[in-house]
Design a protein that fits this description.
Elements lengths: L1 E5 L2 E3 L5 E8 L8 E6 L6 E6 L6 E3 L7 E6 L4 E6 L8 E8 L3 E3 L3 E5 L2
């Protein structure tokens, strides 16, 4: 089982990034997928979650209206489109699959700074 995030990096405030999480080794469409983030010195925060096939989506209030989660079950990939980024969005972002089992990606750094 693998979850591999990509697309992170350094962006200026107001900019955009698109994170991807490519999954392998399990039946991707059976698992809700969630993006988390953890900033230095802070607790891990749930950012957004998307159901396997029902279309259900949840966003944390801190990102609602700015971030969009989506998935492509044919490509076994979940995405997080992040717009209007703020310095407080700086964190390590990780994806998680939680169903019969729990799988985590290694995480990827997103830094929002001028």
């Amino acid at each position: 089982v693998q979850l591999v995030e990509s697309g992170g990096g350094l962006v200026q405030p107001g900019g955009s990034l698109r994170l991807s999480c490519a999954a392998s080794g399990f039946t991707f469409s059976n698992y809700p997928m969630t993006w988390y983030r953890q900033a230095p010195g802070k607790e891990r925060e749930l950012v957004a979650t998307i159901a396997g096939t029902s279309g259900y989506i949840y966003y944390a209030d801190s990102v609602k209206g700015r971030f969009t989660i989506s998935r492509d079950n044919a490509k076994n990939t979940v995405y997080l489109q992040m717009n209007s980024l703020k310095p407080e969005d700086t964190a390590v972002y990780s994806c998680r699959a939680l169903g019969l089992n729990s799988y985590w990606g290694h995480g990827i750094q997103v830094t929002v700074s001028s």
